[in-house]
Amino acid sequence: MIKRILLIGLTFIFSLSIGCSYRSALSKADWETEGFEHYEYHYQQTIQLSGRDIEEIGDRLEYFYDFASDVWGFGDDRKITYYYFTSRDEVKRLAGIDMNGKVILEENIVLSIHGSDAHEVAHIFTTPTERPLRLANFWMEGIAMYYTWPKLYYSEGEERLYERPLGAWHGCSVHQNAKKLLEEKKLPKLESLIYGNEDFGYLDSDISYPAAGSYVTFLIGEAHSDLESVTKYREFINKANKADSTESVKSIFLEVFDTKFENTIIGWKEFLSGWDEEKLYEVKLK
Ligand SMILES: [Zn+2]
Questions:
Q1: Which domains, and CATH codes, for the chain?
Q2: What pTM does this model have?
């Protein structure tokens, strides 16, 4: 079987502040609607999902909700409103956004060209709720990439790559992407990304996203394997959201993780050097 590319949408956090509500704008289009326990699920009629497809999507989304929401203290009683689009062109036509996926935090809305997009749902769970939102995109995209597991995605089917709960980017794990960048001397200096978004936005997303995802996964352990570190990460990003400089982010990092940020970079690069992507495929897809 040819392993094709898992296309994870290029996504950014988006906070709606003024103008019309996305909810009301999108409600004017024609949608098929399903109710899941924690999601109000809309999909374009042209997608033509079968009952079994719907069931599978609901299972994946609810699995992810159960796995991740409590850990992040997600206490919003509202359902997540999910819009599944046929294509990026349709996202642009109906929502006016030229992206594969997006989350509108204040309205608990996910827009995606994927039937079950864990990356976007992860933004809803993990983004600090305090405003203004000042946390660097590096930390927010890093934790969303942490959850970008191929096995949670629909409708990639045979493109699900590997079973292990590890983030993927364009057909390889985040670690394999970062290892390649390291070998090609293209791995960015993370220090310039941990406060503010200028450098993160300047970088090619094929560099910034997998690098952030790989580093965060290294820092806190794959798929909640080290729950204490995940809790620390949550504490860290809530505090770092108030930081006013790179130095203050570093000092919050030291306070929460009890180690210097620079030390973790050394450990991460050593880890990448020894990364063996082939081992990911030792567990067969079901
Ligand atoms: Zn994202």
A1: 13-126 (3.40.30.160), 137-274 (no CATH)
A2: 0.92
Q: Tell me the pLDDT tens digit for each residue of 78-118.
A: 999 999 999 999 999 999 999 999 999 989 999 999 999 99
Q: Cα of 8 to ligand 1 centre, how many Å?
A: 9
**On the CB side of 25, how many CA atoms lie within 13 Å of its CA?**
16
> Tens of pLDDT along 215-255?
999 999 999 999 999 999 999 999 999 999 999 999 999 99
> Which residues have a Cβ under 8 Å from the Cβ of 220 and sit 6 or more positions away?
146, 226, 229, 230, 232, 233
Q: Tell how far the Cα of 175 is from the centroid of ligand 1, in angstroms.
A: 17
103 alpha carbon – ligand 1 mean position (Å)? 8
- Report CA(39)–ligand 1 centroid distance (Å): 19
State in Å: Cα 101 to ligand 1 middle.
Answer: 8
